[in-house]
Amino acid sequence: MLKSDIRWPSHRRYRSRTEWEPVGFFSDCLCNSTSFDLMLGFFSSSAISVLSDGFAVFLYNNGYMRLIINDVLTIEDRKAISIGVGKEEIPYFDLSNIKSIKESLSERDMHFFECLSWLIRNNRIQIKIISPKDGIGISHTKSGIFYDGLNSIGFDGSCNFSRTALLDNIESISASCDWDGPVDSARIDVMREDFNRVFNGRDENIIYVDSENVKISLSSIFQQKSIDDLLEDEYKLLKNKSKLAIPSTAMLSLSRAKDKIEAIIEKKSFLEEQSIKYGKLPVFLMLPGQEIIKNRRLRTGRTMVKKGSLRWLQGQEKRLHL
Q1: Is the overall model pTM greater than 0.85, yes or no?
Q2: Tens of pLDDT along 52-89?
């Protein structure tokens, strides 16, 4: 749960290269949410770089997403970016050419798009693509709301067009928690109203672009992986990230995400064994989406541990809130 299962900084602010990294914020929130509204004013690798850790866990939790993407930049925006990055290529994704996007992705970015593809194929996402109207620019921030069925977290992320910010993924996030009091709750309500106004087509300052072809391209061009494959991919990404020099608070968040994935896969293996042993699976043991997987070793090289008891499984669920 967002309130009880996450360690929050008292100042509620996250910034790259500090003790409280944005990657820790998004990893924790994705692992503990069932709903995610996200507005990406600048659709680029730097914008999605912190969204790969915990995304597969969000899918496993039956997560539902609403995504708004600003596809077309104004001439002024392009000039600002060009000045900021110098001779470097402008690092944004061209949604008119999904194949070119795929060719430029890192392993972590590829995982984000494969999760996005899964959401599209399973009707768990709505996408709106927007562009500026009459030369009026759109705020190039990362903002949105996480919800777990009980509590909400709103966030605003800053972005500027410096080379460091765009190419080295420097950003800051300010979070608002609804349990912090009426001011924070009101701030989240305003964020939700702003998001809904754009999402529902009521903002007169923007043009709405048909997103159907983009959704079809995303779901067909990117590999159609199962939840099991995505969980194992994410496990490997998190395991590799543990070798990097990351602040302890962010590393703790990523470790929690890795622990959740381990417990999820072990739970799925246990349930598969029970279904084979008894012929069918009791209803109270079914997984979200009623998905059962084949018993196998993880491709990460980690040996599957057979705990073999319902008591152990229930203890794992209670510890990690699965």
Answers
A1: no
A2: 899 999 999 999 999 998 765 545 545 544 444 445 55
The answer to whether residue 261 scores a pLDDT higher than 60 is yes
Measured in degrees and rounded to the nearest 5, phi and psi for residue 19 equal -60, -35
Of 310, 72, 36, 50, whose CA–CA distance to 207 is shortest?
Answer: 72
State the pLDDT at residue 282. 52
Domain that holds residue 108: 13-233
**Tokens 């972005």 identify what position?**
159
HSE-up (13 A, CA, CB side) for residue 104: 15
In a domain, 318, yes or no: no
Q: Is residue 92 in some structural domain?
A: yes
What does residue 149 show for φ and ψ, rounded to 5 degrees?
Answer: 100, -15
Q: 40 with 68: CB under 8 angstroms?
A: yes
Which spans in 122-179 are helix H? 163-167
Strand partners for 154: 145, 176
Buried b (16+ CB within 10 A) or exposed e, 67-97: bbbbbbbeeebeebbeebbeeeeebbbebee
For residue 292, being part of any structural domain is answered with: no
**Rounded to whole angstroms, how far apart are CA atoms 308 and 295?**
13
Q: Angle at Cα 2 formed by Cα 267 and Cα 47, nearest 5°?
A: 95
- Please provide residue 310's backbone torsions phi and psi, each rounded to the nearest 5 degrees: -65, -35
Cβ neighbours around 222 below 10 Å, total? 22
Q: Note the pLDDT tens digit of each residue in 9-32.
A: 999 999 888 889 888 999 999 999
Q: Name 146's Cβ contacts closer than 8 Å, sequence gap at least 6.
A: 2, 29, 30, 32, 33, 35, 36, 152, 153, 155
CATH of the domain at 152: 3.30.870.10
Cα-trace Rg, the chain:
20
